[in-house]
Amino acid sequence: MDTASENCSVKVAVHVRPLIGDERAQGCKECVAVTHGNPQVQIGTHSFTFDHVYGNGGSPSSAMFGECVAPLVDGLFQGYNATVLAYGQTGSGKTYTMGTGLREGFQTGLIPQVMNALFNKIETLRHQMEFQLHVSFIEILKEEVRDLLDSVSVSKSVTANGHAGKVSISGRPPIQIRESSNGVITLAGSTEVAVNTLQEMAACLEQGSLSRATGSTNMNNQSSRSHAIFTITLEQMRKLHSVSPDNGTPDEDMDEEYFCAKLHLVDLAGSERAKRTGSDGLRLKEGIHINRGLLALGNVISALGDEKKRREGVHVPYRDSKLTRLLQDSLGGNSKTVMIACISPADINAEESLNTLKYANRARNIQNKPVVNRDLISSDMQKLRQQLKYLQAELCARAGGAPSDEVQVLKGRIAWLEATNEDLCQELHEYRSRRAVVEHCGTDAQEGPVSFVKSDGLKRGFQSIDSSDYQMDEAVSDGNSSEIEEVAKEWEHALWQNTMDKELNELNKRLEQKESEMKLFGDIDTEALRHHFGKKIMELEEEKRIVQQERDRLLAEIENLAANSDGHTQKMQDGHTLKLKALEAQILELKKKQESQVELLKQKHKSDEAAKRLQAEIQSIKAQKVQLQNKIKQEAEQFRQWKASREKELLKLKKEGRKNEFERHKLEALNQRQKMVLQRKTEEAAIATKRLKELLEARKSSARENSVNSTGYTTPTGQSNEKSLQKWLEHELEVSANVHEVRFKYEKQSQVQAALADELTILKQVDQLSLNGHSPQRGKNGHSRLSSLSPNARMERIASLENMLNMSSKALVEMASQLSEAEERERALVGRGRWNHLRFMGDAKNLLQYMFNVAAETRFQLWEKDTEIKEIKEQLNDLVALLKQSEAQRKELVKQQRMREQAVTIALASSASVRFSAQHFMFTWLLILHTAPVHPVLTISWHEEI
Ligand code: ADP
Ligand code: MG
């Protein structure tokens, strides 16, 4: 059955995951490029082709199951064994891809999808055949096989009793790997759980994942250092209905066909070298053990992958580890195998990613010989089926591929357009806000101090600009808003003063009026008037009395005369009567006069009262005026104080501005310096890397020469051979030293990069905070310097950091590439490989002697250097002591200086309150002269103050 069509090489797919949070936080750049439309991956100058590439610009990860694993599930039903291997460094996404993690990938992972497909298919075939499914889940940790489902059976019985809970692993005998007589590998002593439903199988996966041993390493604290193998065994009993030729009814004695196939789903341990995990002690030991499994896997792969070796029938070291032993069927055996190489796109993982890709690339060359357990189908039929399957797969790939490509392109376009749109919007906003500022300033300048309403509106306008969510130069908006505030305040003050003045004027006017009114009263001497009137009335009274007396007398006389009644008397009587009449009239007159006088007196009284009221009013107005004046005074004082504090603030701000300017200059210098250093370092690294590349290439060609030499029968025992061997050894040593140098630089560079990225992250956070209107928390995480940077300086620093990160990233990838190359060579040379071409004892002895000389020489040089270092250290110690001393002196001086400054401040403050006290001046001067003999800044400010 070993026809060519049955041979199929291991299919290798690459899964590139996106950058994850940690890597983003470290400022990693992507260094993996996927060729569009081709399953090609590129890192630096290295390019690889695989069967499929998923993620990061390749096919979508969701297509992986359909393209890589679904055919294997179908194959299971035809009796083909299958294996899916997830390979890659820790944190590259193996567990995620397989779906053996507890939280992630349980829906999208391959195993859950396998289970779905399996049960769907069983459902459609159930009426044609009988099925039996078993699952086992084991893990290989430190070269020991652990049964992950052991607890399942126990927990089942426990839950049956109604006591759910955690179950400890029972003390069963260790699981052993056995090979049956027909070469089938079995695990003796592992739990095989019979499952009937999808839910039962999923429960097994979950339970096993839970009990899987995990440990934390540098790369990924959830990752595992163990290989986990989830195995599904499918047994089928197919009834073959042989139709009897005579009656055409199905024969009751049916043939039965039995198939049994296994699907291994393997989540391998992290492929990184032990030293990269940064763990020691026990961890390192585990690391080495894991490496043993993966190392053996690598050797198996390379033995199987080398066409020549395979033809020569070179021994494949399956037995070197439990892993390879268990996977013997899957690699170069009776299995269809898919390897999924998981890689991270981050530059810091470039070396490991390259190693993974090289490893996976070798695996592509492995030829498997999958066979169906029962061979009833003719080979032609099988050929046709195979073809059909291929065609179907291709069709599937084509159908899925074309539109998704288009969508990808369109998506890219949309993203680009959106980004451009955003940029333009931002620009527009910026211009708008700037225009608004200019306009506002313009109108204000024209109109001068206006009403409150106006200034309020202005303020609000600026606030709305401030609080708007688009970015605006912070410094500008800040300065403006405070300026506006100031102007508004001044207007407010002016306006207030104005209204107050007006009020005061009004009061004054009223007062004047009242006072003039009062004056009208004030001109008349009321007492004299009263006196005058009184006298007048008395006089009138007197006159009246006299007139009445006269009248009485006249009346009496008339009576007398009437009694005497003579002619003369008649005449006299008449005269008297006339007189009397005149007198009567006079009395009447007097009476009238008197009445009018009384009336006048009354009026006088009234006007007196009015005057009194007026007086009171004047008093109250005067009081109001005093109050108002006080208020004005108070306000003026407040304003003066505010103005003074404002000026002080302004002065401070100016000072701060100068400080900021200074900081900015310092930062710029720092940026420049750091960039230069980085540039120098990367250049040095580039030179070392280039040298390593040259050495490696030179060795490749010399190795070829040597191999030619050694296969031929030339026995050049003479001088020339000795020389060439020595040259070769020198070369080897130089390569080794160079690898060390590059690795050292690589590590240093990664540290630098991490530090740069750290700073960048913080700066971006601060930026974000200030964009959202929060003031950055000063001194948080000890990064006060970073959070106190002005926005402009921050932007500059961010740009500079990004620039440096880019530079560093490129250098890292380049170094990683050469290191991976060197490691590859080293791997090939380990063991006998290095000395393969040493055929003669004489050569070996000569070389050994040469090596001895080199070693002795090196030791001596080392000793010399040690001595030198010791001397230099002593010098350094002296210098450090000196430095400490001068630092102490400096501190003392700074302390003195501070004291002086304090004294000056106190002096200035008191001089301000007793400004014109010459005595005080003298005192202060003396104080200053005494404490600060020469201090230009102080004396200048002093003059200004004066
Ligand atoms: P490994 O098993 O190789 O150590 P994990 O599967 O645990 O790696 O993945 C490491 C981290 O990367 C996890 O947090 C996981 O969520 C994330 N991750 C891996 N692959 C992807 C992917 N294709 N898409 C998104 N995140 C992924
Ligand atoms: Mg994992």
TrEMBL record:
<dbReference type="GO" id="GO:0005524">
    <property type="term" value="F:ATP binding"/>
</dbReference>
<dbReference type="Pfam" id="PF25764">
    <property type="entry name" value="KIF21A_4th"/>
</dbReference>
<keyword id="KW-0961">Cell wall biogenesis/degradation</keyword>
<keyword id="KW-0505">Motor protein</keyword>
<keyword id="KW-0547">Nucleotide-binding</keyword>
<dbReference type="Pfam" id="PF00225">
    <property type="entry name" value="Kinesin"/>
</dbReference>
<dbReference type="InterPro" id="IPR027417">
    <property type="entry name" value="P-loop_NTPase"/>
</dbReference>
<keyword id="KW-0067">ATP-binding</keyword>
<keyword id="KW-0493">Microtubule</keyword>
<dbReference type="GO" id="GO:0071555">
    <property type="term" value="P:cell wall organization"/>
</dbReference>
<comment type="subunit">
    <text>Homodimer.</text>
</comment>
<dbReference type="InterPro" id="IPR019821">
    <property type="entry name" value="Kinesin_motor_CS"/>
</dbReference>
<dbReference type="GO" id="GO:0007018">
    <property type="term" value="P:microtubule-based movement"/>
</dbReference>
<protein>
    <recommendedName>
        <fullName>Kinesin-like protein</fullName>
    </recommendedName>
</protein>
<feature type="binding site">
    <location>
        <begin position="88"/>
        <end position="95"/>
    </location>
    <ligand>
        <name>ATP</name>
    </ligand>
</feature>
<feature type="compositionally biased region" description="Polar residues">
    <location>
        <begin position="704"/>
        <end position="720"/>
    </location>
</feature>
<comment type="similarity">
    <text>Belongs to the TRAFAC class myosin-kinesin ATPase superfamily. Kinesin family. KIN-4 subfamily.</text>
</comment>
<feature type="coiled-coil region">
    <location>
        <begin position="497"/>
        <end position="698"/>
    </location>
</feature>
<dbReference type="InterPro" id="IPR001752">
    <property type="entry name" value="Kinesin_motor_dom"/>
</dbReference>
<feature type="domain" description="Kinesin motor">
    <location>
        <begin position="9"/>
        <end position="366"/>
    </location>
</feature>
<dbReference type="GO" id="GO:0055028">
    <property type="term" value="C:cortical microtubule"/>
</dbReference>
<dbReference type="InterPro" id="IPR027640">
    <property type="entry name" value="Kinesin-like_fam"/>
</dbReference>
<feature type="region of interest" description="Disordered">
    <location>
        <begin position="771"/>
        <end position="791"/>
    </location>
</feature>
<feature type="coiled-coil region">
    <location>
        <begin position="869"/>
        <end position="896"/>
    </location>
</feature>
<dbReference type="GO" id="GO:0008017">
    <property type="term" value="F:microtubule binding"/>
</dbReference>
<dbReference type="InterPro" id="IPR036961">
    <property type="entry name" value="Kinesin_motor_dom_sf"/>
</dbReference>
<keyword id="KW-0175">Coiled coil</keyword>
<feature type="region of interest" description="Disordered">
    <location>
        <begin position="699"/>
        <end position="720"/>
    </location>
</feature>
<dbReference type="GO" id="GO:0003777">
    <property type="term" value="F:microtubule motor activity"/>
</dbReference>
